Amino acid sequence: MMSKSGGTSSTLSAAISGGYKREIYRAAISGNWVKASSFNQTHPNWMRIPLTDDGDTALHMAVSMEQTTFVEKLIMLMSVEDMEILKVDGNTAFSMAAISGNVEIAKLLLQKNPRLAWIKGHKTCFQLNWHLQLINLLW
């Protein structure tokens, strides 16, 4: 089940102040897993919360900054549905990895949630069309 950043995510977002969102954002872009995981106690849904106006979650941010170890640890906490959260532009974190050609992160994401490969992203393109190397990875 895909969900745009909004709905339940916006309700969760409202429950976390801007200061916490900034801290989660900074932890995700820098790959600081110790800091990010410290929110498990106080804000157990932190990984689902849109951190930017574009709907970026911690997973989107870590993928865009190529924080592979952070992504690997984060997806262990996430449900497959959490991994399908769409940014405002319609892209998942997997589509961001595919667009940038980050095979290592794309493979991590697909291992946990193979459905990600078939979710239409920005401009309704299947993510597998973004990068030939990812198609080879799957076959």
TrEMBL record:
- Could you tell me where this protein is found in the cell? Cell membrane
SMART domains registered for this protein in UniProt: ANK
Query: PROSITE patterns in the record, alphabetically?
Result: ANK_REP_REGION, ANK_REPEAT
Q: Which Pfam families match?
A: Ank_2
Q: Which domain of life is it from?
A: Eukaryota
Gene3D superfamilies (alphabetical)? Ankyrin repeat-containing domain
What protein am I looking at? Uncharacterized protein
Q: Which organism is it from?
A: Stylosanthes scabra
Lineage, please?
Eukaryota, Viridiplantae, Streptophyta, Embryophyta, Tracheophyta
